[in-house]
Specification:
By secondary structure, the protein is α/β, with parallel strands linked by helices. 34% of the residues lie in helices and 23% in strands. It is built from ten helices and ten strands. A hairpin with a 2-residue loop joins strand 4 and strand 5. Helix 5 crosses helix 6 (147-159). The chain binds adenosine-5'-triphosphate.
Length: 272
């Protein structure tokens, strides 16, 4: 169980995250939605400790993760792998090496310097690529792959950390609808294995289609926390504001008007 307890983050005068409290049981698939600037990325980055909390605490299975230092912090960061909108691959390295880089944290630094990976690591990377259905690309340079394939490589790299949770910051924001669907399907499949997935999403149709729990943020605060069914138009107005509603629902403005190929539990979808 991840516990976020009255957490705030300030940047100068700006309160990016304001008194957020959430309990997220292991294995949940959570979508965080809200307008640009609502505080979604900052919240995710604080979970992973890419950013520190200004006040409040975070805990996972009884360990105060918001206060970890040194080796314990690195171990926590392995437990909660992050993926990003821009994939963050090394473009002129082959796919399999990019995936193996997921093991860098926690290895002998000398082996890292020499760029040496064991047979076991290579096998694990290939298995991760197979799981994401992109093993045939293993020897290609990452930059030759489509955006959707690159994001799947990033997910495979995250899996190399054997994480308890995956934190995905707008993972489909730069993808076309077909690739967005493949990536969301991949995240859902990984979640079905018991890995918690917490993903920031700009639009609520994708969150509704894939996430069993949706957290809505506005101006740094949680203004909604519930199931897709509970996310009514009135609630959406609170999250996005009256002028933001169109953006939240509009298929023209988003690449995320998609529905899953198959859904593990019966959740509502507004997609056609
Ligand atoms: N490093 C930083 N320095 C100063 N201000 C920041 C920093 N990071 C975030 N902010 C501010 O905090 C607020 C929340 O930003 P955040 O990126 O968390 O929002 P978001 O909901 O993820 O938005 P987006 O969907 O555009 O990424 C914004 O006003 C942003 O400008």
């Amino acid at each position: 169980m991840l516990r976020i307890m009255n957490v705030s983050r300030r940047f100068g005068d700006k309160l990016a995250v304001n008194g957020v409290s959430l309990d997220i049981p292991q294995g949940q698939m959570v979508g965080i939605i809200g307008r640009s600037g609502a505080g979604k990325s900052t919240l995710l980055r604080m979970i992973n400790r890419l950013a520190d909390v200004s006040s409040g605490h975070m805990e996972c299975d009884g360990v105060r993760t918001s206060e970890l230092r040194g080796q314990a912090l690195r171990s926590w960061q392995r437990d909660c792998a992050m993926i990003f909108q821009q994939f963050n691959l090394v473009p002129r390295l082959d796919v399999i090496t990019n995936v193996m880089l997921g093991r860098l944290n926690g290895r002998n630094p000398l082996l890292n310097l020499l760029g040496l990976f064991s047979g076991d690591e290579q096998l694990a990377a290939l298995k991760a690529l197979e799981r994401l259905d992109i093993a045939p690309t293993a020897m290609q340079w990452a930059q030759t792959l489509s955006g959707g394939q690159q994001q799947r490589v990033a997910i495979a790299r995250a899996l190399m950390q054997n994480p308890k949770m995956i934190l995905a910051d707008e993972p489909i924001a730069s993808l076309d609808p077909r690739n967005a669907q493949i990536v969301m399907d991949s995240l859902r499949d990984i979640n079905a294995d018991g890995i918690t997935v917490i993903t920031n999403l700009h639009t609520l149709d994708t969150a509704r289609a894939y996430c069993e729990r949706i957290v809505g943020m506005a101006a740094g605060k949680v203004v909604f926390d519930g199931t897709p069914d509970e996310l009514t138009t009135d609630v959406a107005r609170t999250i996005y504001g009256a002028d933001g509603l169109k953006e939240a629902f509009s298929e023209a403005l988003t690449s995320t008007s998609i529905s899953p190929l198959s859904i593990k539990s019966p959740v509502a979808s507004t997609a056609p």
